[in-house]
Amino acid sequence: MLGTIITTSIYILGTIVLFGILPTETLQNSPAPFAEAGEIIGGKYAGYFVAAGAAISGMGALNGWILILAQIPMAAAKDAMFPKIFKKENAKGAPVLGLIIGSLLSSIVMLMNFSDSLVTQFTFMVNLTVLACLVPYVFVSAAYIIILVQKHTHINSAVKTVVLGLLGFLYSLWAIYGSTAEVVFYGFLLLLLGIPFYVLMQWNKSKARAKGTNEITRTLNTYLDTLKQKLYDAHQHLLNKGKVVSAKAITNHYLGKSEEKKTILEVFKLHNENITALL
Description:
By secondary structure, the chain is an all-alpha fold.
C-alpha cells in the first residue's frame, strides 16, 4: 500500500512539474518532455542525463513487459480459459511458446503501421496496450462491488466499497474515452478475436470429460460416466425417500454410510438444520 502511494505521488508530482516548466504547445508535440524540462533546469548536460535515465527506464520496462507478455496467457491457460499450448514451459520454467506467439503478434501489429514513423508506431502500441489493460479494470471495478455485496463483506463500510468501485469504474471509462478512435477500433477487434478461444474453452469444460484418445483418457472418461450415474442414482434415492437432498447426504449414500442413531436433541438439531437448508 505504501509503495503504491509513493509511486503514484512521484508520477503525479513529476507531471505537475512539467506543467509548470514547459508550455502547453511543447508538451503536446515533444517526444521527450522530461529531457526538455531537465535542460531548462540544469542546462544541456542535465537534459542528456534525464534522457539517459528515461532510456534506461524504458529498456527495463520493455524487458519486463516482454516477460509479462507470456505470463498472462499462461495463467489463463492454467485456469482452462485459454489453449493449453500457452502453459507449456521450457526447462527453466519460462513459457517460451507464449513468448514466441506474443512477439509474432506484436510484430504483425507493427507491420500494419509500417508506413508510420517509429515514434508513431511505438505510441500506437503503447496506447493499444493501455486500452487492453483498461478493459479488465472496468470489469474488476464493477465486480468489486458485486462480490463484496454478495458475500456480505465490509457491510459496515458499504459507502466506501461503492465509492471505490465507482471511482475505479468511472476512471477506466474516462481513460478509454480518452484513447484515439484508431486505438479503440483495433482494441475492439483484438477483443473480438479472443471470443472464439473463450467459447472453445467453455465448450470443452462443459463436457466435463478428459481430452484425448489414449487408453488412460478412455478409462478416465468411463470412470467419470460411471461416477456421474451413481451420484444421480443417489440423488434420486433421496428424493424417492422424501429425505433432504444435500451434498453430504449424496456422498454418504454413495459411500454406503448408514445413518447413525441420534438422541432427541440431535434429531431436533438436525431437523432445524434441514429446515434452514430448505429456506
